[in-house]
Amino acid sequence: MCVTRGTGNACAGDSGGPLVIPGDSDTSSDDVVVGLSSFGLYDDDNNCVTDTWSGFARITSKLNWINSVVCFHSIDPPEDFPCGTLPFLTLEVSGSSGDITISIDVEESEGQFETIITTSASASDGLFETLFLYPKEEGTRQYTFNVHAGETGEVDDLKLWLGDPLYNNLLHDTTGTFTFTIQDDGAVVDAQGKIIVGGPETTYYTQLEIVFGNEPGEVSWSLVDAISNEQIFTVLPSQNAVYQPGATLAKIDLGIQPDRSYLFEISDANGNGLQSYSLYLLDSNNNSSLIAKGDTVASEETLLNIDESGFVTVIRSTKRLKMTSFP
């Protein structure tokens, strides 16, 4: 943006200085930085021209980049940064020796890429990083992920996940360059147009895995549509009495739809019928996301929401509170 106030101008040494809209507070706590000094003008004698325009880089044009970089480098980011809502990748690398470098580029406009993440590490020390991307709701974006070993470097194992590795959305597992697109429906597509994770046509399933304790006949569970109160499935204690202690049961159930909220409840009447349980969300490609788990309990409830693109939010749980994404 070009700015003038009639007198005064950006000059040598001012680059990077802030352009501020003052707030009402005497402490400057509500001042707003809207630009950073980029250039000014000089006359024929190489003196700063003070009565004309100065050029500033507009902060909002790079806000996504600022958010991604701050979230990547911060252990405890400021509360007004959206680190908890940005989509992210998880990278795990191990190797024998030498240095490795990692970068992620994003397509800011057609054919124009900008680096948002750059980091390096010793292969022998390993690397486990969270790499923040741009907001999903701003539409389709293409990314290029690069991992390269130095002349003496050797990578033994590499894995790149969408989100937390716990949810098993593996995108890539080799060095070199990997190009992918996150579409505005949440699907992740590779350079050949193949859907790696998600997609609007995905059908969702629930899978409940239980390891029974000494009294399987004391355990019951149910899944209910939280809006309509429709029973998706219900299993009573009497139905579990046929199982032997320590038996494992895996149950797959249809009927889970995007853009819905569900309440999952599991009960163990006397606390000795259940060793552990895990509730997963699966799609038709067998990509799985762990959304609730527990061990010996009297009763636990988990309220979860699945949005239109398959992102899962655990809204309330008597056992744990977390947010994850699926796909």
TrEMBL record:
One of its GO terms (biological process) is proteolysis. Keywords: Virulence. InterPro entries: Peptidase_S1_PA, Peptidase_S1_PA_chymotrypsin, Trypsin_dom, TRYPSIN_SER. It holds the Pfam family Trypsin. It comes from the Eukaryota. GO terms for molecular function: serine-type endopeptidase activity. The keyword Cell inner membrane does not apply. Residues 1-71 form the Peptidase S1 domain. This is Peptidase S1 domain-containing protein. It comes from Grammatophora oceanica. The lineage of its organism: Eukaryota, Sar, Stramenopiles, Ochrophyta, Bacillariophyta.
